[in-house]
Amino acid sequence: MKIYISGGAKNGKSMFAQEIAKKLSSEGHLWYLATMEPRDNEDDARVFRHRKERAGWGFKTAEWGRNIASHSKEFDCKGTYLVDSVTALLSNEMFGGMSGEINKPAAEKVANELLAFSDAVENVVFVSDNIFCDAAFYDEWTDSYREGLAKVDRLVAEKCDVVAEFSCNQIIFYKGAELV
Amino acid sequence: MELIIGGAFQGKTAFAKENFGISEEEIFVCNKDSAPEFDKKCITHIERFSFWCVEHGFEPVDYFFEHTKNIEDKIIISDDISCGVVPIDKTERAWREANGRILIKLSKEAEHVTRIFCGLSQRLK
Lengths: 180, 125
Hints:
Largest interface: A-B, 23 and 25 residues
Shape of chain B: globular
Order of helices and strands of chain B: EHEEHHEHEE
Distance between the termini of chain B: 12 Å
Order of helices and strands of chain A: EHEHEEHHEHEE
Strand order of the largest sheet of chain A: 3-2-4-5-1-6-7
Strand order of the largest sheet of chain B: 2-3-4-1-5-6
Radius of gyration of chain B: 14 Å
Oligomer: heterodimer
Number of domains of chain A: 1
CATH architecture of chain B: 3-Layer(aba) Sandwich
C-alpha cells in the first residue's frame, strides 16, 4: 500500500505516519527513510528528538538525503518505509548542488525516483508539507521550490492508494479512506 | 457558477479543464498590475485581482459583481491565501482579507465549491 500525507506543520502527520507504517509492516521490515541532511545544531537537535520519538517502535533507519535511485540495491522489497520527508529531499536536490544555482528539473527527478522506489518495495508512507496557502509574493528561489514540491506531490499522489491531508490532528481523505 | 480553490500549484486549472471542458482560449488569468476583463468563461487567480483592487482602492466583491455578466455560467478559480502568518505589509494584510471576503461571497453564490489538493478534488459544497 502506498500512502501520501501532507498538511501544515505540527498537525499530526508524523504520528499518524508512524502508526500506519507500523501497522502495515511485517516483522523486521519497518524502515524510517530520513531525508534531511543535518547542517547545524538545530538540525541535530531535531534529529535527536525524532529518534527519541521513534525509539521502541522497531524502525530501522536509512539516511538517504538525495539520489534515492542510487540506493536501489539496498531497497528492502518486503519493507514498509516511512519517507520523512519529501520536502527535505526536494530541498537537498534543488539547492544542495555545489554551483549555488537552483536545480529546477530536480522536482521531476525526485518524483521519478520516488515512484521507482515505491514500486520496488511493499509499503510506503510519504510525508510532505502543505506550504501553498499563505499570502505572500516570493523570490524566484522560493517560488521555484513551491512549484517543484507541488509537482512532486501531484505526480506521486496520483500513483498512491491513499492521499490524505492533516489539519488540527484530523485526517481529510482525498482517496482511499476505506483502505486505512 | 463553479468555485475552485486550493493552494498554489495544486492543479486547479487542470481540474477545470478536465471536468468542465475548458480550453486555454476560454481562460482569463488575472494579474495584479492591470484591470481584469471578466467576459471569458473561466477566470483564474482571483487572488491577484483582489491585490489589484486593494492597490487601486476597490472592494473586490463590489468590483466583480458590477463588472461581470452571466456570473451563473462562470468557473472561478482562486489560490487559497488564507493560511500562513499575518503579513507584515499593510497592503498584503488588506489583500488577504479582501480575498477572503470575495471568496465567501462567491462560495455563497456558487453551485459547487471544490478544493484541490495534490491534484485531487474535494467537494466542499
